[in-house]
Amino acid sequence: MTTSTVRGKFRWTVAVPPLALLLLVATWANHEHWAVLVAIALTLVGAVMASVHHAEVVAHKVGEPFGSLILAVAVTVIEVGLIVMLMVSGGDGASTYARDTVFAALMITLNGIVGISLLVGATKHHLVSFNASGTGAALATVITLAGMTLVLPSFTESGHVREFSTSQLAFAAVVSLVLYVVFVFTQTVRHRDFFVPVSSDEFGRVTGLLDLDGDDHADPPTSTETWTSVGLLLVALVSVIGLAKLLSPTIESGVSSLGLPYTVVGVVIALVVLAPETISAVRNASRDRVQNSLNLGYGSAMASIGLTIPTIAVAMVWLDGGLELGLLPMQMVLLALTMMVSVLTVGQGRAKPLHGVVHLTLLAAFVFVSMVP
C-alpha cells in the first residue's frame, strides 16, 4: 500500500466512522422502520470496510508480520462484539451463536481466504511459495485450538450435551489464550523470519526472504496519518458493534422467514466481518506475497478461537443461558477434511491452482450444508 493509495482512500474512510457513530446514537432508541434498517446495514458494511482499511494503514507502518497480526485482531474484535451482542439479544439460537460464528470463521479463513489466495496467486504466477515452517506452526496451533474448544465439548461428560462445565470452559479459555499469546510471540519476536514473504525459483523452491520489512518498498504512512487511523479504527469498531446490535433482530427474522437453520446467522456474521480481510489477502496474493495472505488466513482463524473463546467465557458470568460449543457430526466431518487438506497444502511450501480449487470446494460444501443440513 503506497502513501498515495492511503491518501486516496483517506476521505471516505475518515468520514464513515464518525458518521456511523452518529447514526448509532440517532437510531439507538428507534430503528424499526425499514428505511432506517437499510441505512444501518449499509453503514455497518462501510464501517467494517473503514475499520479494516485503518488497520491496514497501521499495519503498513509497523510492517510484516505485525501488519497481518493487527488486521486479524481488529477483525476478531468486531467478530467478538457481534457474537456478544447477538447472545445478549437472546433468541432460540443464542446458545450456539458463538460456536456457529467461530466455526464459520474457521471455514471461511482456512478454505475461503486461503483457497482464493492460492488460486489467484498460482493462476497469475504459475506456482506460489511460502515458508512451510511458519505456516505449518500457525496451522498446528489452529488445529489444536479447534480441537480443544469445538470438538472436545461434544465428548465431555461433566456438562450438558455439547457444553463444557464451568471448570472445563475456564480451562479451555486459559489454554486458548496461552496458545495464542505464545504463537504471537513466536511470530513477532522469536521466529519473525518464518512469517515474511519468500523468494523462489521457477520450480517454486524457496531461495530466501523477500521484502523483509514487509512494506513492498512503498512509502509508509506518516505518523499523523497513522495515529489518525488508530483513532478512527477505535471509532469504527465501536460503531460496528453497536450497529450490529441494532440489526441483529432483522438478521434473525430474515433467516427464520427463509426457513433456514439458525447456523446460517453465524455464517452471515462471519462473511460480513471477513469480506474486507479476504480482499486484502487476494491483493497480497496477486503481488506474489502469498505468505502475507496465509498469515491473514491462519492468523484470523487462530484469533477467532484464541480471543473469542476467552472473551465469551468471561461474558458467560453475566449472560443467561447455556453455551453450546461442541460441533455437530456434520461440522466435525467438514473440519476434519479441512485440516487434512490444509496439512497437505502447507507441507509442500508451494501450491498450484488446484490447491486453491480444493479449498474453495470445501468452502462451497460448508455453505451449502449450512443452508440444507
Automatic annotation (TrEMBL):
Membrane-protein topology: Multi-pass membrane protein
Residues annotated as domain Sodium/calcium exchanger membrane region: 34-188, 229-371
Pfam families tied to this protein: Na_Ca_ex
Record keywords, A-Z: Membrane, Transmembrane, Transmembrane helix
InterPro entries: Alkaline_pH_Ca-Antiporter (IPR052946), NaCa_Exmemb (IPR004837)
Localisation per UniProt entry: Membrane
Ranges that cross the membrane: 12-29, 35-54, 66-89, 101-122, 134-155, 167-185, 230-248, 254-275, 296-319, 325-347, 354-372
PANTHER family the UniProt entry points to: SODIUM-POTASSIUM/PROTON ANTIPORTER CHAA, SODIUM-POTASSIUM_PROTON ANTIPORTER CHAA
Name of this protein: Ionic transporter integral membrane protein ChaA
Species for this entry: Nocardioides daphniae
Gene it is expressed from: chaA
